[in-house]
Amino acid sequence: MKFIALKNPGDVDQLELQTMATPQPNDDEVLIRVYAAGINRPDILQRQGMYPPPADASPILGLEAAGEIVHCGANVKRWKQGDKVCALVNGGGYAEYVVAPAAQCLPIPQDFSYVRAAALPETFFTVWHNLFQRARLTAGESLLIHGGSSGIGTTAIQLARVLGIQVFATAGSAEKCSAITALGAAAINYHEQDFVSVVKEQTQGKGVNVILDMVGGDYIQRNFSAAAKEGRIVNIAFLQGSKVQVDFMPLMLKRLTLAGSTLRAQSGQAKAGIAIDLEENVWPLLSNKKIEPVIDSVFSFEQVAAAHMRMESNQHVGKIILDLTLSDNKDD
Fold this sequence. Notes:
This protein is 29% helix and 26% strand. The protein has helices at 41-47, 114-118, 121-134, 151-162, 174-182, 195-202, 219-226, 249-253, 268-281, 283-287, 304-312, and strands at residues 2-6, 15-19, 29-39, 64-72, 84-88, 97-101, 105-107, 142-145, 166-171, 186-189, 208-213, 227-235, 257-260, 295-300, 319-323.
């Protein structure tokens, strides 16, 4: 099969199309012929040498893919050859074929293309786990999302809005704020507005119940100010740094809960549980078109370097996808 190799940690010039043997699934896995794969921020960090894959994971980049099952392991009961699925994978998504745990596969929603389906697993697993399992976000509450125009952000906005939650989201340009507003959130341009002041004003001084933060840096302290009493704050990345001086007194006085998580390092059992929740609670919303993945741009397999550059530019709104059907490198 063809795959995108990372020759050495570094810039996009270290990505190269190469050939290797097609992997084979174990008893609890399936082999998927990949037609589209998502680009995610951890891919960038792994390429740069700052996010090494777990020891038991594929060293090939790529955490989500959509395609057709071509082989099932001996213990796999639900899936069969020919099933169309999208999957959260433990690495290996940038390839013509990828092995995925059967329990981390989900059916492609009704009327979804492979490109749209490839935009689902990483972001929806992450958002559901952190907002609804970890932060216990419920209808009638309020939510602040930092990085609202990202794949995570656009997904979180839509899920929260359809479930009856007041949403605020930060972004750094008028274009991104317009996209956030169109999805139903109150947009905050962090170059022009102080998000603490905005949420305090819009919540009559109470603050927000939940904050989803992928920025870190000085936002960590400011999140304490923006949170309501008994608020829950979840950090899922630290794009502006994880080492800061913080006064934790507001955490105690407001009885806040501060949590953090990464998805890739969690057990297969935990990811399987998220998949079950998603299929029950979220997949009907996708099939009924009540929510929809926001696609920023689509690149061919050979354009993987350009796709990474697009993400690193921080100009994108929504997901960036590799469409392998645009490539001449698949064997028919």
